[in-house]
Amino acid sequence: MFTKQSLVTLLGGLSLAVAQTTTEEYPSLAEIRAAQATVQPYSPVSNVKGLAFNRFVNIWLENTDFDAAAATEHLPVLAKKGLLLNNFWAITHPSEPNYCASAAGDTFGMDNDDFHQIPSNVSTIADLFDTKNIAWGEYQEGLPYPGYQGYRYPESGANDYVRKHNPLILFDSVTEDALRLRQIKNFSSFYDDLENHRLPQYMFITPNMTNDGHDTNITFSGDWTWNFLSELLENDYFTKDTLIMLTFDETGTYEIGNNIYTFLLGGAVPDDLLGTKDDTFYTHYSVIASLSANWGLPSLGRWDCGANLFSWLAKKTGYVNYEVDTSNLYMNETHWGPLSDDDYSEYYAGWPVPTTDASCSAGNGILSTVKKTYEGLTATFNYTTPFPYDSRSGNNVGVKYSRTLKNGKVESGTSE
Ligand SMILES: *[C@@H]1O[C@H](CO)[C@@H](O)[C@H](O)[C@H]1NC(C)=O
Ligand SMILES: *[C@@H]1O[C@H](CO)[C@@H](O)[C@H](O)[C@H]1NC(C)=O
Ligand SMILES: *[C@@H]1O[C@H](CO)[C@@H](O)[C@H](O)[C@H]1NC(C)=O
Ligand SMILES: *[C@@H]1O[C@H](CO)[C@@H](O)[C@H](O)[C@H]1NC(C)=O
Ligand SMILES: *[C@@H]1O[C@H](CO)[C@@H](O)[C@H](O)[C@H]1NC(C)=O
Ligand SMILES: *[C@@H]1O[C@H](CO)[C@@H](O)[C@H](O)[C@H]1NC(C)=O
User: Would the keyword Hydrolase turn up in this protein's UniProt record (predicted)?
Assistant: First the structure.
Protein backbone atom coordinates (compact mmCIF):
# COMPACT_ATOMS: atom_id res chain seq x y z
CA MET A 1 0.00 0.00 0.00
CA PHE A 2 1.21 3.47 -0.80
CA THR A 3 0.64 6.35 1.53
CA LYS A 4 -0.44 9.54 -0.20
CA GLN A 5 2.99 11.05 0.34
CA SER A 6 4.87 8.09 -1.11
CA LEU A 7 2.55 8.07 -4.10
CA VAL A 8 3.31 11.72 -4.76
CA THR A 9 7.02 11.02 -4.44
CA LEU A 10 6.76 8.01 -6.70
CA LEU A 11 4.76 9.85 -9.34
CA GLY A 12 7.15 12.77 -9.10
CA GLY A 13 10.09 10.43 -9.71
CA LEU A 14 8.36 8.65 -12.59
CA SER A 15 7.41 11.84 -14.29
CA LEU A 16 10.98 13.09 -14.08
CA ALA A 17 12.09 9.91 -15.77
CA VAL A 18 9.52 9.79 -18.54
CA ALA A 19 8.10 13.16 -19.27
CA GLN A 20 9.61 16.58 -19.03
CA THR A 21 8.00 17.62 -22.26
CA THR A 22 4.72 19.12 -23.35
CA THR A 23 3.35 15.67 -24.09
CA GLU A 24 2.43 15.32 -20.46
CA GLU A 25 -1.26 14.63 -20.18
CA TYR A 26 -1.29 13.94 -16.46
CA PRO A 27 1.58 15.72 -14.70
CA SER A 28 2.20 14.61 -11.13
CA LEU A 29 0.87 16.61 -8.23
CA ALA A 30 4.46 17.35 -7.25
CA GLU A 31 5.15 18.85 -10.66
CA ILE A 32 1.98 20.90 -10.48
CA ARG A 33 2.88 22.23 -7.03
CA ALA A 34 6.39 23.08 -8.19
CA ALA A 35 5.08 24.97 -11.20
CA GLN A 36 2.51 26.79 -9.07
CA ALA A 37 5.31 28.01 -6.86
CA THR A 38 7.38 29.37 -9.73
CA VAL A 39 5.41 30.20 -12.90
CA GLN A 40 4.24 33.80 -12.94
CA PRO A 41 1.39 35.10 -15.10
CA TYR A 42 2.41 37.47 -17.89
CA SER A 43 0.06 40.34 -18.73
CA PRO A 44 1.28 42.44 -21.64
CA VAL A 45 -0.74 45.55 -22.48
CA SER A 46 -1.14 47.35 -25.80
CA ASN A 47 -3.35 50.00 -27.28
CA VAL A 48 -3.63 49.42 -31.02
CA LYS A 49 -6.68 51.26 -32.31
CA GLY A 50 -9.14 49.19 -34.31
CA LEU A 51 -11.65 50.25 -36.94
CA ALA A 52 -14.67 49.12 -34.91
CA PHE A 53 -13.37 48.15 -31.44
CA ASN A 54 -10.22 48.33 -29.34
CA ARG A 55 -10.79 45.20 -27.27
CA PHE A 56 -12.52 41.88 -27.92
CA VAL A 57 -13.75 39.62 -25.15
CA ASN A 58 -14.77 36.13 -26.31
CA ILE A 59 -16.83 34.22 -23.70
CA TRP A 60 -17.97 30.65 -24.41
CA LEU A 61 -20.69 28.62 -22.75
CA GLU A 62 -21.40 24.98 -23.62
CA ASN A 63 -23.74 22.73 -25.56
CA THR A 64 -27.04 24.60 -25.85
CA ASP A 65 -29.61 24.86 -28.62
CA PHE A 66 -30.55 28.38 -29.74
CA ASP A 67 -34.14 28.12 -28.51
CA ALA A 68 -33.13 26.90 -25.07
CA ALA A 69 -30.75 29.84 -24.57
CA ALA A 70 -33.38 32.26 -25.89
CA ALA A 71 -35.86 30.92 -23.31
CA THR A 72 -33.70 31.68 -20.24
CA GLU A 73 -34.43 34.45 -17.81
CA HIS A 74 -31.18 36.37 -18.25
CA LEU A 75 -29.63 35.83 -21.67
CA PRO A 76 -32.29 37.67 -23.72
CA VAL A 77 -32.15 40.56 -21.23
CA LEU A 78 -28.40 40.82 -21.80
CA ALA A 79 -28.81 40.46 -25.57
CA LYS A 80 -31.28 43.39 -25.51
CA LYS A 81 -28.56 45.58 -23.99
CA GLY A 82 -26.45 44.89 -27.07
CA LEU A 83 -26.82 43.22 -30.47
CA LEU A 84 -28.22 39.73 -31.02
CA LEU A 85 -26.43 37.80 -33.79
CA ASN A 86 -29.37 35.74 -34.89
CA ASN A 87 -27.63 33.65 -37.54
CA PHE A 88 -24.32 32.68 -35.89
CA TRP A 89 -23.12 29.08 -36.42
CA ALA A 90 -20.75 26.76 -34.64
CA ILE A 91 -18.45 24.71 -36.86
CA THR A 92 -19.05 21.08 -35.82
CA HIS A 93 -19.37 18.68 -32.83
CA PRO A 94 -18.15 17.95 -30.17
CA SER A 95 -16.48 20.73 -28.14
CA GLU A 96 -12.77 20.64 -28.84
CA PRO A 97 -12.82 21.13 -32.63
CA ASN A 98 -14.88 24.28 -32.11
CA TYR A 99 -12.39 25.74 -29.62
CA CYS A 100 -9.58 24.72 -31.98
CA ALA A 101 -11.38 26.40 -34.89
CA SER A 102 -11.64 29.69 -32.95
CA ALA A 103 -7.84 29.83 -32.69
CA ALA A 104 -6.62 28.41 -36.00
CA GLY A 105 -9.44 28.68 -38.53
CA ASP A 106 -9.76 24.91 -38.97
CA THR A 107 -10.73 21.71 -37.15
CA PHE A 108 -8.07 19.58 -38.90
CA GLY A 109 -10.75 16.89 -39.08
CA MET A 110 -11.15 16.70 -35.29
CA ASP A 111 -14.38 14.90 -34.30
CA ASN A 112 -13.50 14.18 -30.65
CA ASP A 113 -12.23 15.68 -27.37
CA ASP A 114 -8.88 13.86 -27.34
CA PHE A 115 -5.48 15.11 -26.16
CA HIS A 116 -4.15 16.77 -29.32
CA GLN A 117 -0.95 18.69 -29.95
CA ILE A 118 -1.03 20.54 -33.23
CA PRO A 119 2.35 20.94 -34.97
CA SER A 120 4.17 24.24 -34.81
CA ASN A 121 3.83 24.92 -38.54
CA VAL A 122 0.12 25.60 -37.95
CA SER A 123 -0.40 29.30 -37.23
CA THR A 124 -3.00 30.78 -34.88
CA ILE A 125 -4.54 34.11 -33.96
CA ALA A 126 -1.63 34.59 -31.54
CA ASP A 127 0.63 34.91 -34.61
CA LEU A 128 -1.78 37.40 -36.17
CA PHE A 129 -1.81 39.55 -33.01
CA ASP A 130 1.96 39.38 -32.64
CA THR A 131 2.43 41.01 -36.07
CA LYS A 132 1.24 44.27 -34.46
CA ASN A 133 2.06 43.54 -30.82
CA ILE A 134 -1.60 43.39 -29.91
CA ALA A 135 -1.71 41.95 -26.41
CA TRP A 136 -3.75 38.77 -26.08
CA GLY A 137 -4.58 36.37 -23.30
CA GLU A 138 -6.83 33.60 -22.15
CA TYR A 139 -8.61 33.31 -18.82
CA GLN A 140 -9.44 29.70 -18.02
CA GLU A 141 -11.30 29.23 -14.78
CA GLY A 142 -9.62 26.69 -12.46
CA LEU A 143 -6.33 26.53 -14.41
CA PRO A 144 -3.84 25.71 -11.62
CA TYR A 145 -1.03 27.90 -12.98
CA PRO A 146 -0.31 29.88 -16.17
CA GLY A 147 0.27 27.60 -19.15
CA TYR A 148 -0.74 24.33 -17.42
CA GLN A 149 -0.94 21.70 -20.16
CA GLY A 150 -2.56 18.74 -18.43
CA TYR A 151 -5.79 17.17 -19.69
CA ARG A 152 -7.82 18.50 -16.78
CA TYR A 153 -7.46 19.94 -13.26
CA PRO A 154 -8.03 18.56 -10.72
CA GLU A 155 -7.04 15.33 -12.46
CA SER A 156 -9.91 13.41 -10.85
CA GLY A 157 -13.22 14.17 -9.16
CA ALA A 158 -15.76 16.73 -10.39
CA ASN A 159 -14.78 18.44 -13.65
CA ASP A 160 -13.41 21.93 -13.16
CA TYR A 161 -10.78 23.04 -15.73
CA VAL A 162 -10.54 20.97 -18.94
CA ARG A 163 -7.98 21.29 -21.72
CA LYS A 164 -10.53 20.64 -24.47
CA HIS A 165 -12.04 24.08 -23.73
CA ASN A 166 -8.69 25.89 -23.96
CA PRO A 167 -8.09 26.96 -27.57
CA LEU A 168 -4.45 28.06 -27.68
CA ILE A 169 -3.01 25.31 -25.46
CA LEU A 170 -3.63 22.86 -28.34
CA PHE A 171 -0.88 24.44 -30.46
CA ASP A 172 2.84 23.70 -30.27
CA SER A 173 3.49 27.20 -31.62
CA VAL A 174 2.10 28.43 -28.30
CA THR A 175 3.33 25.76 -25.88
CA GLU A 176 6.91 25.87 -27.20
CA ASP A 177 7.10 29.53 -26.14
CA ALA A 178 7.35 30.09 -22.38
CA LEU A 179 6.14 33.69 -22.63
CA ARG A 180 3.06 32.74 -24.63
CA LEU A 181 2.21 30.01 -22.13
CA ARG A 182 2.20 32.59 -19.34
CA GLN A 183 -0.53 34.54 -21.18
CA ILE A 184 -2.88 31.59 -20.56
CA LYS A 185 -4.06 32.33 -17.04
CA ASN A 186 -6.92 31.71 -14.65
CA PHE A 187 -9.76 33.82 -13.25
CA SER A 188 -7.67 35.17 -10.36
CA SER A 189 -5.41 36.71 -13.01
CA PHE A 190 -8.47 38.07 -14.81
CA TYR A 191 -9.53 40.01 -11.72
CA ASP A 192 -5.91 41.10 -11.06
CA ASP A 193 -5.53 42.32 -14.65
CA LEU A 194 -8.91 44.08 -14.47
CA GLU A 195 -7.95 45.87 -11.28
CA ASN A 196 -4.47 46.78 -12.52
CA HIS A 197 -5.73 47.86 -15.95
CA ARG A 198 -3.61 45.20 -17.59
CA LEU A 199 -6.25 43.39 -19.63
CA PRO A 200 -5.16 42.40 -23.14
CA GLN A 201 -6.89 43.62 -26.31
CA TYR A 202 -8.07 40.09 -27.16
CA MET A 203 -9.13 37.63 -24.50
CA PHE A 204 -10.83 34.27 -24.48
CA ILE A 205 -12.79 33.44 -21.32
CA THR A 206 -13.70 29.87 -20.36
CA PRO A 207 -15.80 29.33 -17.22
CA ASN A 208 -15.37 25.96 -15.54
CA MET A 209 -17.46 22.88 -16.40
CA THR A 210 -20.09 23.83 -13.83
CA ASN A 211 -20.44 27.48 -14.77
CA ASP A 212 -20.36 27.01 -18.55
CA GLY A 213 -23.36 24.64 -18.38
CA HIS A 214 -21.46 21.53 -19.51
CA ASP A 215 -22.08 19.61 -16.28
CA THR A 216 -25.15 21.64 -15.30
CA ASN A 217 -27.68 23.28 -17.63
CA ILE A 218 -28.54 26.51 -19.38
CA THR A 219 -30.39 27.92 -16.35
CA PHE A 220 -27.18 27.58 -14.37
CA SER A 221 -24.86 28.96 -17.08
CA GLY A 222 -27.33 31.77 -17.84
CA ASP A 223 -27.30 32.78 -14.17
CA TRP A 224 -23.50 32.56 -14.11
CA THR A 225 -23.32 34.84 -17.16
CA TRP A 226 -25.63 37.38 -15.55
CA ASN A 227 -23.57 37.43 -12.36
CA PHE A 228 -20.25 37.55 -14.20
CA LEU A 229 -21.21 40.31 -16.64
CA SER A 230 -23.46 42.56 -14.53
CA GLU A 231 -20.56 43.95 -12.54
CA LEU A 232 -18.23 44.16 -15.55
CA LEU A 233 -20.76 46.11 -17.62
CA GLU A 234 -20.59 48.86 -14.97
CA ASN A 235 -16.81 49.06 -15.29
CA ASP A 236 -15.78 51.80 -17.73
CA TYR A 237 -12.24 50.50 -18.09
CA PHE A 238 -13.62 47.12 -19.15
CA THR A 239 -16.36 48.30 -21.52
CA LYS A 240 -14.78 51.35 -23.19
CA ASP A 241 -14.45 50.65 -26.95
CA THR A 242 -14.87 46.96 -26.08
CA LEU A 243 -16.88 44.25 -27.86
CA ILE A 244 -17.92 41.47 -25.52
CA MET A 245 -19.21 38.37 -27.30
CA LEU A 246 -21.21 35.73 -25.46
CA THR A 247 -21.60 32.56 -27.46
CA PHE A 248 -21.65 28.76 -27.22
CA ASP A 249 -19.24 26.19 -28.56
CA GLU A 250 -22.07 24.23 -30.23
CA THR A 251 -25.74 23.30 -29.97
CA GLY A 252 -26.70 20.52 -27.56
CA THR A 253 -28.63 18.59 -30.22
CA TYR A 254 -26.44 17.14 -32.97
CA GLU A 255 -29.13 16.50 -35.58
CA ILE A 256 -30.19 20.13 -36.05
CA GLY A 257 -28.42 23.10 -37.64
CA ASN A 258 -25.57 24.30 -35.42
CA ASN A 259 -27.00 27.84 -35.04
CA ILE A 260 -26.01 29.07 -31.56
CA TYR A 261 -27.37 31.93 -29.46
CA THR A 262 -24.81 34.75 -29.63
CA PHE A 263 -24.81 38.40 -28.70
CA LEU A 264 -22.44 41.35 -28.56
CA LEU A 265 -22.26 43.84 -25.68
CA GLY A 266 -20.01 46.69 -24.59
CA GLY A 267 -19.06 50.21 -25.54
CA ALA A 268 -18.09 49.32 -29.11
CA VAL A 269 -21.56 48.17 -30.18
CA PRO A 270 -22.82 51.07 -32.35
CA ASP A 271 -25.69 53.01 -30.69
CA ASP A 272 -28.05 52.49 -33.62
CA LEU A 273 -27.70 48.69 -33.30
CA LEU A 274 -28.39 48.48 -29.56
CA GLY A 275 -31.40 46.29 -28.79
CA THR A 276 -31.62 45.04 -32.39
CA LYS A 277 -30.76 41.77 -34.09
CA ASP A 278 -28.45 41.04 -36.98
CA ASP A 279 -29.43 38.31 -39.47
CA THR A 280 -26.03 38.19 -41.20
CA PHE A 281 -24.61 34.66 -41.51
CA TYR A 282 -21.66 34.27 -39.13
CA THR A 283 -19.56 31.37 -37.84
CA HIS A 284 -16.79 31.07 -35.24
CA TYR A 285 -14.50 31.79 -38.22
CA SER A 286 -16.17 35.19 -38.68
CA VAL A 287 -14.62 36.26 -35.39
CA ILE A 288 -11.07 35.64 -36.66
CA ALA A 289 -11.89 37.44 -39.94
CA SER A 290 -13.41 40.37 -38.02
CA LEU A 291 -10.40 40.63 -35.72
CA SER A 292 -8.18 40.77 -38.81
CA ALA A 293 -10.35 43.39 -40.53
CA ASN A 294 -10.58 45.45 -37.35
CA TRP A 295 -6.85 45.66 -36.66
CA GLY A 296 -5.49 45.44 -40.19
CA LEU A 297 -4.11 41.94 -39.67
CA PRO A 298 -3.55 39.25 -42.30
CA SER A 299 -5.57 36.06 -42.63
CA LEU A 300 -4.48 32.57 -41.53
CA GLY A 301 -5.42 31.40 -45.03
CA ARG A 302 -7.77 28.79 -43.59
CA TRP A 303 -11.55 29.00 -43.11
CA ASP A 304 -11.22 32.50 -41.69
CA CYS A 305 -10.32 33.62 -45.23
CA GLY A 306 -13.82 33.67 -46.73
CA ALA A 307 -15.77 34.21 -43.51
CA ASN A 308 -18.21 37.10 -43.25
CA LEU A 309 -17.27 40.16 -41.16
CA PHE A 310 -19.38 41.81 -38.47
CA SER A 311 -21.89 43.75 -40.55
CA TRP A 312 -21.03 47.29 -39.47
CA LEU A 313 -17.31 46.54 -39.67
CA ALA A 314 -17.82 45.25 -43.25
CA LYS A 315 -19.47 48.58 -44.08
CA LYS A 316 -16.39 50.39 -42.84
CA THR A 317 -13.96 48.29 -44.88
CA GLY A 318 -16.19 48.10 -47.97
CA TYR A 319 -16.34 44.30 -47.91
CA VAL A 320 -19.66 42.80 -49.03
CA ASN A 321 -20.74 39.81 -46.92
CA TYR A 322 -22.33 36.71 -48.43
CA GLU A 323 -25.86 35.60 -47.81
CA VAL A 324 -26.04 31.88 -47.14
CA ASP A 325 -29.13 29.75 -47.70
CA THR A 326 -29.04 27.74 -44.48
CA SER A 327 -32.03 25.52 -45.27
CA ASN A 328 -29.64 22.65 -46.18
CA LEU A 329 -26.86 23.55 -43.77
CA TYR A 330 -26.11 21.64 -40.56
CA MET A 331 -22.44 22.33 -39.74
CA ASN A 332 -22.72 19.33 -37.39
CA GLU A 333 -19.78 17.33 -38.83
CA THR A 334 -16.40 18.30 -40.23
CA HIS A 335 -14.11 17.52 -43.16
CA TRP A 336 -11.41 14.84 -43.18
CA GLY A 337 -8.09 15.36 -41.43
CA PRO A 338 -5.31 13.98 -39.23
CA LEU A 339 -7.17 14.63 -35.94
CA SER A 340 -10.19 12.53 -36.88
CA ASP A 341 -11.17 9.40 -34.95
CA ASP A 342 -13.27 8.29 -37.91
CA ASP A 343 -16.46 9.00 -35.96
CA TYR A 344 -18.08 12.04 -37.64
CA SER A 345 -15.28 12.72 -40.10
CA GLU A 346 -12.80 10.73 -42.13
CA TYR A 347 -9.26 10.08 -40.87
CA TYR A 348 -6.55 11.09 -43.28
CA ALA A 349 -2.93 11.61 -42.23
CA GLY A 350 -2.12 14.74 -44.23
CA TRP A 351 -2.42 18.19 -42.66
CA PRO A 352 -4.72 20.49 -44.66
CA VAL A 353 -2.74 23.09 -46.61
CA PRO A 354 -3.99 26.69 -46.26
CA THR A 355 -4.31 29.10 -49.17
CA THR A 356 -1.30 31.36 -49.63
CA ASP A 357 -2.59 33.69 -52.29
CA ALA A 358 -6.35 34.21 -51.90
CA SER A 359 -7.93 37.57 -51.39
CA CYS A 360 -9.71 37.17 -48.05
CA SER A 361 -12.63 39.01 -46.49
CA ALA A 362 -10.39 40.94 -44.10
CA GLY A 363 -8.50 42.29 -47.11
CA ASN A 364 -4.97 42.18 -45.70
CA GLY A 365 -3.46 39.18 -47.46
CA ILE A 366 -2.11 36.03 -45.80
CA LEU A 367 0.22 35.85 -42.78
CA SER A 368 3.81 35.85 -44.06
CA THR A 369 4.86 32.74 -42.11
CA VAL A 370 1.92 30.85 -43.64
CA LYS A 371 3.04 31.98 -47.10
CA LYS A 372 6.61 30.89 -46.43
CA THR A 373 5.68 27.52 -44.90
CA TYR A 374 3.18 26.47 -47.56
CA GLU A 375 4.70 28.19 -50.61
CA GLY A 376 3.95 26.36 -53.86
CA LEU A 377 1.49 23.89 -52.29
CA THR A 378 -2.13 23.69 -53.42
CA ALA A 379 -4.75 24.70 -50.88
CA THR A 380 -6.66 21.65 -49.66
CA PHE A 381 -10.12 23.22 -49.49
CA ASN A 382 -11.90 26.19 -51.05
CA TYR A 383 -11.19 28.57 -48.19
CA THR A 384 -12.78 31.59 -49.86
CA THR A 385 -16.34 30.37 -49.20
CA PRO A 386 -18.23 31.86 -46.24
CA PHE A 387 -18.61 28.42 -44.56
CA PRO A 388 -16.48 25.26 -44.55
CA TYR A 389 -17.31 22.37 -46.84
CA ASP A 390 -15.65 19.24 -48.23
CA SER A 391 -16.46 17.79 -51.64
CA ARG A 392 -14.85 14.44 -50.84
CA SER A 393 -17.03 13.55 -47.83
CA GLY A 394 -20.02 15.67 -48.85
CA ASN A 395 -19.79 17.67 -45.62
CA ASN A 396 -21.86 20.91 -45.92
CA VAL A 397 -22.29 20.49 -49.69
CA GLY A 398 -25.30 21.63 -51.69
CA VAL A 399 -25.51 24.96 -49.89
CA LYS A 400 -26.12 28.13 -51.93
CA TYR A 401 -24.47 31.44 -51.20
CA SER A 402 -24.52 34.78 -52.99
CA ARG A 403 -23.85 38.48 -52.70
CA THR A 404 -24.48 41.59 -54.72
CA LEU A 405 -21.41 43.76 -55.10
CA LYS A 406 -21.63 47.57 -55.00
CA ASN A 407 -21.48 47.74 -58.82
CA GLY A 408 -24.59 45.55 -59.02
CA LYS A 409 -22.70 42.41 -60.04
CA VAL A 410 -24.11 39.27 -58.43
CA GLU A 411 -21.66 36.60 -57.24
CA SER A 412 -23.19 33.29 -56.31
CA GLY A 413 -22.23 29.66 -55.89
CA THR A 414 -23.16 26.31 -54.43
CA SER A 415 -20.79 24.24 -52.32
CA GLU A 416 -20.26 20.97 -54.18
C1 LIG B 1 3.88 20.55 -40.86
O2 LIG B 1 4.23 19.69 -39.79
C3 LIG B 1 3.71 18.38 -39.90
C4 LIG B 1 4.05 17.64 -38.63
O5 LIG B 1 5.39 17.75 -38.35
C6 LIG B 1 4.30 17.71 -41.14
O7 LIG B 1 3.73 16.42 -41.28
C8 LIG B 1 3.97 18.56 -42.36
O9 LIG B 1 4.61 18.01 -43.49
C10 LIG B 1 4.43 19.98 -42.17
N11 LIG B 1 3.95 20.79 -43.30
C12 LIG B 1 4.74 21.54 -44.05
C13 LIG B 1 4.13 22.22 -45.19
O14 LIG B 1 5.91 21.67 -43.79
C1 LIG C 1 -4.56 30.69 -10.43
O2 LIG C 1 -3.22 30.89 -10.83
C3 LIG C 1 -2.39 31.34 -9.78
C4 LIG C 1 -1.02 31.57 -10.39
O5 LIG C 1 -1.11 32.54 -11.39
C6 LIG C 1 -2.32 30.31 -8.67
O7 LIG C 1 -1.56 30.80 -7.62
C8 LIG C 1 -3.74 30.04 -8.18
O9 LIG C 1 -3.70 29.00 -7.23
C10 LIG C 1 -4.62 29.62 -9.34
N11 LIG C 1 -6.01 29.51 -8.89
C12 LIG C 1 -6.69 28.37 -8.97
C13 LIG C 1 -8.12 28.43 -8.56
O14 LIG C 1 -6.19 27.32 -9.33
C1 LIG D 1 -16.34 26.22 -10.59
O2 LIG D 1 -16.08 27.55 -10.19
C3 LIG D 1 -16.81 27.99 -9.06
C4 LIG D 1 -16.47 29.45 -8.84
O5 LIG D 1 -16.84 30.21 -9.98
C6 LIG D 1 -16.46 27.15 -7.86
O7 LIG D 1 -17.25 27.55 -6.75
C8 LIG D 1 -16.74 25.70 -8.16
O9 LIG D 1 -16.30 24.91 -7.11
C10 LIG D 1 -16.02 25.27 -9.43
N11 LIG D 1 -16.50 23.94 -9.81
C12 LIG D 1 -15.78 22.83 -9.66
C13 LIG D 1 -16.45 21.54 -9.98
O14 LIG D 1 -14.63 22.85 -9.30
C1 LIG E 1 -29.68 22.88 -13.39
O2 LIG E 1 -28.46 22.57 -12.74
C3 LIG E 1 -28.44 22.94 -11.37
C4 LIG E 1 -27.05 22.68 -10.85
O5 LIG E 1 -26.62 21.39 -11.17
C6 LIG E 1 -29.53 22.17 -10.61
O7 LIG E 1 -29.55 22.56 -9.27
C8 LIG E 1 -30.88 22.44 -11.25
O9 LIG E 1 -31.86 21.63 -10.65
C10 LIG E 1 -30.84 22.14 -12.74
N11 LIG E 1 -32.09 22.59 -13.35
C12 LIG E 1 -32.76 21.84 -14.24
C13 LIG E 1 -34.00 22.45 -14.78
O14 LIG E 1 -32.37 20.74 -14.57
C1 LIG F 1 -26.18 16.00 -38.71
O2 LIG F 1 -27.54 16.24 -39.02
C3 LIG F 1 -28.10 15.35 -39.96
C4 LIG F 1 -29.52 15.81 -40.23
O5 LIG F 1 -30.25 15.82 -39.05
C6 LIG F 1 -28.02 13.93 -39.41
O7 LIG F 1 -28.45 13.04 -40.40
C8 LIG F 1 -26.60 13.59 -39.01
O9 LIG F 1 -26.57 12.34 -38.35
C10 LIG F 1 -26.08 14.65 -38.04
N11 LIG F 1 -24.69 14.38 -37.68
C12 LIG F 1 -24.34 14.07 -36.41
C13 LIG F 1 -22.88 13.91 -36.14
O14 LIG F 1 -25.15 13.94 -35.51
C1 LIG G 1 -14.55 28.58 -54.33
O2 LIG G 1 -15.37 29.57 -53.69
C3 LIG G 1 -15.58 30.73 -54.48
C4 LIG G 1 -16.43 31.65 -53.63
O5 LIG G 1 -15.67 32.40 -52.81
C6 LIG G 1 -16.25 30.38 -55.78
O7 LIG G 1 -16.36 31.54 -56.56
C8 LIG G 1 -15.45 29.32 -56.52
O9 LIG G 1 -16.16 28.88 -57.64
C10 LIG G 1 -15.16 28.12 -55.63
N11 LIG G 1 -14.26 27.21 -56.30
C12 LIG G 1 -14.52 25.92 -56.49
C13 LIG G 1 -13.48 25.12 -57.14
O14 LIG G 1 -15.57 25.41 -56.08
Answer: yes
